[in-house]
Structures are given as structure tokens and as C-alpha cells.
């Protein structure tokens, strides 16, 4: 059984439960005004509060928001393969039509984080009425957070070990390293795994500036989740929730602990396989 991030789920459940009555009227009116097309495109990089934004949008509209979290803990290999197919089409300059995007996002009216963010330009053309939210944070703080989690050698690598691949398979994520490679290559270039901290910082600043330059101002919100509900609700033209705290989820320490758990499991499997092999050799020699 896949162990889900318990803290994150408990926090989100508490937020959803506590806000159900406070947001019932505004959520109903807001959700009814949204068509079946994608309404929000999250262009912000990983570790910029995308999980917090995901749950904030779900609280506001009572509708699902697509996130890398959903791929790993819900859709798993079925959606990983769909995304890999889209990356392959993109590399071959094959037009990705709306039917392909709808097949992935399905009932979700909002999509943030990877892999969505690296396709923000394509999605803006497919969904011309969609708004774009660029989640941001201090660049040095971002590098530090990424190096401890999603841009560490536990994730941002082109070389996974035999036992790591076994664990990915057991988790229902056998092709996740391939998806990671496609995502990071499109975002940072083919040498993403060799970037220094300074290069990663510069890439982050460049990423944000390109979005600011590309997206029309009336479609773009530059959003620091530390600012809470006010700028988000003003941008979306909906009421600010009363007595509902803005969700601040997926803290660095929680994500790093989950990644370290899988790293430890891979190392334990490596050790077990080595001991088993040595025992087998000893048995053959002495028998």
C-alpha cells in the first residue's frame, strides 16, 4: 500500500471541513460560473507554494485542482504515461490538441505545479479565457528549498539505481523518472542535473521574468502565498473567505522526510541484495 503524506492530508481535511459552511454560498456561485474549460493555469515553479495554491483554489471553488501531488498519489502511472506522450509530441513539434489536454485535466478546472507549468504557453492558446497565476518566492530561499527536496539528487537526477526503480514500480510510478527528466529538461535544459546553485537561481529568475513578459497583465497574477487570500480573491473577483486561514502546506521538512524515507528504503534494498548475493556465493563455494 502506498503511504500518503499524512500531515498534508490531515491539514487539508481540516481546512476543508472547517470552511464548508463558511464557503458554501460563495463556492456554489463561483463554481457554477466556470465552464468546463481550464480556468486557472499555474505557471509557478516547484517549491513556490503550489500545493498551498491548489488547496486554496479547491476551498474557494469546491472543485478539483490538478497538481503533481495528484499524479503521484492518485492517477499514478496512467497519467504519467499520458504526460510522457505529450512531451514526446511536443519534442516532435506535433500539435497537442484540446482533446489531449481535456483527457488529462478531465473535471479539473485548475492546474498548477509540474508538469502543467512547463506548458503554460501552449495551455494559454488552448484555453484563451484562462487566467495565469505565477507563484513566487525569494530566489535564494527557493534554491535552498529545492536543493533539500525536489532539486536534490533524490529527484533531479538522470540516473536511478536498480533498487530505486523497484520502489518506483512498487509505488505504481515506474515511469516517474522519465517524466521527471522530461519536465526538468523542458524547464531548465538538458543539463539540469549539473546546474550549480547559482545557475539554478538564475534559471528561476529567468523563468519568472519570461512569464511576466509573455502573459498579458490582465491575465496574470504574480502571487506570493505569504500574502494570503486578499490578492488571490481580488484577482479572481470573488469574496475573501471569512474566518478561514489560508492553507500553507507541504513544508520543506515534511517533503524532505518523505524523500529520505524512500532513499533509506532503496539503500536497505541495496544492502539486502548484496548480503543475499554474498550468502549465495558462499553457499556455492562451500557446498
What does this structure look like?
The radius of gyration is 21 Å and the shape is elongated. It is built from twelve helices and five strands. It has one domain (about 40-250): Rossmann fold (3-Layer(aba) Sandwich), CATH 3.40.50. Helix 7 (about 140-150) packs across helix 10. Strands 2-3-1-4-5 form a five-stranded parallel beta sheet, with helices on both faces. The protein is mostly helical. The chain starts with 5 loop residues before the first helix and ends with a helix. The protein has helices at about 5-30, 50-60, 70-75, 75-90, 100-105, 120-125, 140-150, 160-170, 175-190, 195-215, 230-235, 250-285, and strands at about 40, 65, 110, 130-135, 220-225.
Amino acid at each position: 500500500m502506498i503511504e500518503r503524506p499524512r500531515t498534508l492530508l490531515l491539514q487539508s481535511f481540516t481546512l476543508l471541513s472547517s470552511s464548508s459552511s463558511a464557503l458554501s454560498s460563495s463556492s456554489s456561485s463561483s463554481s457554477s460560473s466556470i465552464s468546463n474549460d481550464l480556468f486557472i493555469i499555474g505557471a509557478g515553479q516547484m517549491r513556490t507554494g503550489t500545493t498551498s495554491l491548489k488547496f486554496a483554489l479547491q476551498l474557494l471553488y469546491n472543485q478539483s485542482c490538478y497538481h503533481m501531488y495528484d499524479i503521484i498519489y492518485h492517477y499514478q502511472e496512467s497519467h504519467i504515461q499520458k504526460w510522457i506522450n505529450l512531451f514526446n509530441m511536443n519534442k516532435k513539434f506535433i500539435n497537442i490538441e484540446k482533446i489531449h489536454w481535456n483527457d488529462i485535466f478531465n473535471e479539473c478546472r485548475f492546474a498548477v505545479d509540474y508538469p502543467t507549468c512547463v506548458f503554460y504557453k501552449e495551455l494559454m492558446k488552448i484555453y484563451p479565457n484562462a487566467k495565469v497565476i505565477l507563484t513566487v518566492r525569494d530566489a535564494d530561499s527557493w534554491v535552498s528549498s529545492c536543493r533539500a527536496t525536489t532539486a536534490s539528487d533524490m529527484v533531479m537526477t538522470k540516473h536511478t539505481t536498480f533498487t530505486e526503480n523497484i520502489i518506483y514500480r512498487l509505488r505504481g510510478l515506474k515511469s516517474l523518472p522519465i517524466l521527471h527528466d522530461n519536465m526538468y529538461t523542458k524547464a531548465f535544459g538538458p543539463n539540469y542535473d549539473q546546474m550549480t546553485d547559482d545557475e539554478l537561481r538564475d534559471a528561476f529568475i529567468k523563468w519568472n521574468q519570461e512569464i511576466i513578459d509573455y502573459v498579458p497583465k490582465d491575465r496574470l497574477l504574480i502571487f506570493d502565498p505569504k500574502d494570503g487570500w486578499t490578492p488571490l480573491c481580488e484577482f479572481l473577483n470573488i469574496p475573501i473567505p471569512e474566518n478561514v486561514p489560508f492553507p500553507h502546506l507541504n513544508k520543506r521538512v515534511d517533503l524532505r522526510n518523505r524523500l529520505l524515507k524512500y532513499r533509506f528504503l532503496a539503500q536497505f534494498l541495496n544492502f539486502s541484495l548484496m548480503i543475499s548475493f554474498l550468502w549465495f556465493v558462499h553457499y556455492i563455494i562451500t557446498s
